[in-house]
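Worked Example 4.2. Consider the chain below.
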Amino acid sequence: MFGVYIHIPFCRTKCPYCDFVSLPVKGDPPDAFVEALCREIMAFDGPDRADTLFFGGGTPSLVPPAGLERVLDAVARRFLVAPDAEITLEANPDDVTADKVSAWRGLGFNRLSLGVQSFDDRVLAWLGRRHDAEGARRAVARTAAVFDNWSMDLIFGGRPHDAWGETLRETAALAPPHVSAYGLTFEEGTPFAARRDQAVDEDTALALYRAARRALAAHDRYEISNFCLSGRACRHNLVYWRNGEYAGFGPGAYCFTGGVRAQNPSDLDGYLRAPGEKSEALALTPPEIKVETLIQHFRLREGLTADSYRERFGASLEADFGAVLAGLKGRGLLEWDGRAARPTVAGFELNNEIGLALVGEGAE
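Applying the procedure from the previous section yields the following structure tokens:
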């Protein structure tokens, strides 16, 4: 599969914990940005087929339907979009009106991802979110009335911590097709960096994560932080987690094609001057791609089979990584029988340990 990512870097206000490429805007995103985005898409030199399309941000739902239509048209002219392509739009609850939901569906979006984060007003205020819990509930109801494939993002580690359980109970009762549950991070360069003393400790974070797993038991935890009902895994993110190829358009967006990872300029002015010009590009060696492929696959419950590894690389998984896989099995982090390797429950919870072991071992 080949994925296409569209980065819309605008927000009404920037959340204090967010370290993504984004900036506040009053009114609609500038028309010059939509024009630059379309030019970049049309000039893309790479694969012609698109199996998934994901509008992320920032806040893509800020772009008026007419602007979204222009971008979708550029994608359709540049790529052969698969008839069953998954086409996702991220939306803030504030933007989800009945009219907009219908308009998005009419444009061809078939999946909506809502930035709910919490159903508790105290947590939402502490996180600096613009919407309240009732607004989140309205957004969910309006989305579910039109889309049969939709997702909600949740954040754990916000204060008060005891609100997490009620958010999970409400989420489980809503039975969304897909849930992403992420631990709050306090990244350098964000206002939250000065609040690191308020971060939960590792034991508390693990307890909150385990609470999500229990509450969402009706969902398949198919990736470390992602849960879905049958057939509703995010196909676009699976491109990343299987270390597949993808194109990225917009400020700060990444591409990975032909073994080369490249990034667009993060500043808006630089992007508008030269859409599609890369600020950096890195050609990965075959051993590096192998290691990254394993690291990404071991974020998934499905793991990686020896047959799929041989099909992709023309090499033996046992010969390249057998020793380190056996070591990780011995530590209780992987299941490995020579035919397939997949993370255990402990491997999900201590996934960084798997990555560190693989980076240290490498492949020939």
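The chain has a mean pLDDT of 96. The chain has two domains: 2-239, 285-364. Compare this with Example 4.1 before moving on.
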